[in-house]
Amino acid sequence: MKTDLFASIVANLSDGIYVIQHDRAIFLNERFGEIFGYREHESLIGCDMFDKVYPDWQSVDLFRKVHEQLLSGNHQKISWGQPSAKVDGTPFWLEVEARLIEVQGEPAVFGTFLDRTDCKLIGEAMHASQETLRLLLDAMEDRVYVVTDDYRLVYANRKMKAALRGEMEKEFCYKLCRGLDSPCEDCSTDHVFISDRPMQKEYFNQLAQCWYSVIELPVRMPGIDRPTKLAVARDITERKEAEEKVRALSHRLINVQEDERKHLSRELHDDLGQRLNAAKIAVDLLARDLCTAPGDVALRLGQLSQMLKGGVESVRHLSAGLRPASLERLGLVEAIRNDCDQLAARQGVKVAFTHNGMDGVRLSQDAEINLYRVVQEALNNVVKHAGATEVGIQLVASYPIVRMRIRDNGAGFDPASCKGKRCDGLGLVGMAERVELLHGSFKIHSNPGMGTRLTVEIPIPDEAEAGPGRK
Questions:
Q1: CB-based contacts of 436, cutoff 8 Å, min separation 6
Q2: Concatenated DSSP letters for 395-423?
Q3: 118 alpha-carbon distance from chain centroid
Q4: Which of 98, 150, 170, 263 has fewest C-beta within 10 Å?
Q5: Which residues on adjacent β-strands are paired with residue 101?
């Protein structure tokens, strides 16, 4: 009877109830599941509370730290408020009260949840324990702060205060944070106030020489009648530096590959090609001297001459593919035209190549070879994957950029689902890396059955631009 009464009471409470022991949820009521948007809650019982049950990865560390404080024995009960999110990502304010209990002789945490979204006041969401929340925020290594729409800081945690260049009450946020005399160019204040979801961005702080990842959302502060936003900024400088090292290594690898291709091309053409050609000449001379020899000697020498001729042509073809002579001798436009003509002749594909504004524009060797490689890879995809019958390539120089568009009417694909080995097979990563090496942009548009369109844009250095090419 008591068990039924307890179950009836718990089922009708407006609070979400949970019990955690050894990081696992050993009890959850139905209201708990409703607050977080779960269709059913019973399957969550027994799962890891912080990895599987609590759905908001952005605030789970704060949630976990409070429970660790309780289990350390320093507190018997803690109440606090925090931003959270439902299973579908919908943000809301959560009020929590947790206390230390025992279950079967072992420590556990009993907690209750209240959805405080309707009040939308930070003060009301945090009224349970302002001091506990302040301590938690000051213990964070992230910068936490609140800014009004007129660029005034009205709250900053310990980490944020330590980085400020001035007094909060006297200076604007852009002066305090970045040492600027006017609002930051990448400020997202206006966008935050009209968004119904938290906004995320990354920016470089020139004053601190650090990269930050920032999450911002609109809030209301007690006693402040202006729109305000809450921001949490994390230092990601180490991650950015690691990414830059990987990019630099990738770029270095591309350059080394091109140097090796150039060396191998010359070796094939100047050494092996010349040797094969000399051998063919010798065989032809021998065949002429033995033209009256009995048997099929002359015939066999003729066949050997044809084999050597084929070898010479193969070496020339390989050498041209590794480092096309037309690119070095005639430039990017003629090299692309030559490849288009060869594709049309070999595969029967209709290729349309147009160029505008390229007269007088001579790009660097790195720019020309990398743009040429993008064209090579794109045409290779047309043959191997797209099954296209028509290809169009447009190359346009309009200062300060060179824009190249490559389109086909082939099978197409879904870029969003293109991952792993399939992307490697299409060479998209390699093409994007080559364009990034040139400080350009690489965009791809495709749909199954709708063909593919690549757009590449790279800057024209002032020293590479001359006269007629400039517009």
A1: 247, 251, 442
A2: EEEETTEEEEEEEE-S----GGG--THHH
A3: 36
A4: 170
A5: 108
